[in-house]
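Quick one - first record:
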Amino acid sequence: MPVGPEDYTAPRSGEPEPARCPTGFPKLQNDTFLRAARGEKTDYTPVWCMRQAGRYLPGEQGPIGCSTSACWECGYGIRLPPSRCAAESAGLRLRGISRARNGPILSAQASSCFVSAPPAPSVSQTPCPSPSPLLAEFRETRAAQDFFATCRSPETCCELTLQALGMEVVMVPGKGPSFPTPLAEVEDLLKLRQKVDVAVELGYVFQAITLTRHKLGGKVPLIGFSGAPWTLMSYMVEGGGSNTMAKAKAWLYRHPEASHRLLALLRDVIVDYLVGQVAAGAQALQLFESHAGHLGPEQFEEFALPYIQAIAKQVKGKLQAGALPVVPMIIFAKDAHYALEQLAESGYEVVGLDWTLRPQEARARTGQHITLQGNLDPCALYAPKEKIGELVQRMLEGFGPQRYIANLGHGLYPDMSPEHVGAFVAAVHTHSRQLNKPS
């Protein structure tokens, strides 16, 4: 039986939660994605889309027009705890794409990308430059751990603070994650806890994964994910998104030792977080180094790659030690073309690609011993459906029929048509079956 909110009792503050490895999940009916990730032969190319959560399906977008893939999606205002909302949201995405293309999609996404940094002791916060009128209400709700009340208000939910972060993060409509008090000085690292029990801080996320796995009914695999250390550090220093990441990069040059301390702290929490997702029911994991392109080759090799490699090694080691499934892992380092060969040797079964690299070149540089994922330009989904089909066919021919997972080169945008997303998925299945036919 699925674990419901009524079966879950949050641990008392400071009390570690016993490990829970749910059993009795529905049998997986479609393992094409998992087989492709492991390099096994498939009859067609599996496909999924990044940023499915709350991005383009009207039913997931809140009445104020905001949506986010960095928190559990509760934007359609049902009166449920976040974990239950996440399960309902996954079902909505699955139904939405199924209607669009008259068939099942490949995978569902556990939508909690930025839940990866350690929490700080309670400190006074500087008001956000553009504070939401609901922020005070939200903070009170969060302090009381009354997630039921938080989800009751879609506007408040869009500012849901991710419990494992060492500082407050709010979701600003039209802007994304925003930190009211970013890390400004090296001394600010002292505000972060050095040890974090993710089961205590993120129990509701793990509960949501378990509920979602049951909700999917075995129709598709469930992918868990996290931001990578450099990407999370850049948010923590910049206070939000940035075109240049100049403040975060300045830390790397001015404070290299402190930067490594922060990155190592993030690495350790991310490892436990990803292991916890598998224990809760995730069947694959993706690590997003979304801001890799802001680093040059030398900076990437010093401040990003070692932590990417360590996460893969440590996650797999802890999964084995805990008698948990050693699930396939995907690394997506956007715009890090200069490190493609290193990423292919970094311990992940799959390397995700953005749309600025030709499939043939990526395959030539990585060989036939790694699965590649990507890499259609997301904006191609604005094209007519016939053109989408042509672009998909060209992409599939470039990558080849095996050791390949189709995806976009980045995430879906909120104004994208579900019908065009469905056309993309259908084209992948149709053309890949043709490519896999015996000659």
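second record:
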Amino acid sequence: MEYNIDGASEWLPAAANDGKYDGKEEDFSFETTSLSEGSHKVTVRVKSQADVSTSVESSVTVITIPPSVSLSAPAQNPTNNTTPRFTGHASSASGTVTRTEITLDNGATWLPAVYSGGSFGLTTQTLEDGNYQVSARAFDNAGNVGRSGTVTLVVDTIPPVIGGGVQALGPQILTPNENNSISMVAGTETTIAMSMKGGVTGAQIQTGDGNFDLVPQPGTDLWVGKVKFESEGAKEVVVSAVDGANNRAERIFNTLLVEKKGAVSDQATGAKIADAEISVYYFDTIVQQWVLWEGASFGQENPQISGDDGAFSFMVPAGKYYVEIKAPGHRTTQSEILTLTGTSTLNFDLSMRSNPLLSLPFSPPDTVVVTVGGNKQISEKVTKPAVGSDAPTAGLPLENHKNKKLLLTFLSPWSPLSQDQALILSGIDSDEILAVSLQETEARTQVFMQRGSYTFPIVADPEGKSGTDYNVTILPQHYLIDSSGKIQEIITGVLSKNEILNILAKVR
């Protein structure tokens, strides 16, 4: 018994299965040397004792190349779809694809995928939030297995968490006044910075005057943008965020009172005065004299030149000021001295008298009484836990303060006013104070405490869940909680040591 591969000149022996050819019928077998990919002709011949030969031919196809497999992940990745569909293509150069499978756990388990006409697909059962290592494999009729590359699918159904923020005019942080409102003047550009967690890919400030994009700050969780209001009135400022899975979150940041600009007019005719020079002077307590206020540091021009509408406006921090106006053909006019205890708008209307027909060698400026803006009451639309309601406890160690009064202060190391508040808190020796480091890790919070040598008790809330429960918007924000666990007062801004002690003395 001999065999031949592809018509080779050499015939090779085929052994009987029982070791010898001694019967009318024999089973035989042979093992070829390594055959190349493709179809081969196999010829077998047998010779009897009478030297009569008989041969038979057959073919065998050798398939060693595994199927080619490609996998397509869902178009949106991360996704908030908990039953995503995976599709792909599989083909075999020499054989036939017999089945396809998909794994979601890097090969630990495999799920059958429907295969037809070179394509396959699988719609998963409901998946939980998490990361999935997905790949596909295909089998051919020769038993070869081909596998695709691995795709990491992120299933995320949790929306971003919007934390606290600040609003600033240049270096000046704006905080609500005693009437819980922030005032600004139409046309003034301010900066809003917000802390956000949860894979945020885009964020906006939404107002009645349009939408303003926030830009991520590298290496931080901060998103910063510029906002300008052109029209007057109460403006609800809404912060929205979207993550890579298209989950969306939205919070009211605050409500602003946008005031009109002031105007310079002629006292006799009421006509607006163009080309008037309006200057703000500040009393410098260091040199003990009046100096021109450095408006450029706060993103404003000083002096300002009025247009045809006579308009002007300033936003200034706390201090002592007066406004002086000079205009062609009119007497120099000054406001009274203004002592301001907080950020204020200088947007009053001023009327100027014309120059007298007979000019005197020295004519003192006219002095007028004005009303300073920035202290008006507006309706509060930011919903916070109501005074008198139970203080939310989720994620905070408030059980350590059970049956005790507590001043709960929300701050963040990146916030300048939070840093000011931290220094003040360190000067108070009291177990009735607890700070929450909002959307900061334990490690970064400890670095913040060590660098500042701060000693007050603080807990980290990396995801900002407590900030959502308390609806913290502007940092720092304080909640006075009595011994029964009810909120008695909500305060925004930096509190002095005396203010903190007085607040704690109010409740039992």
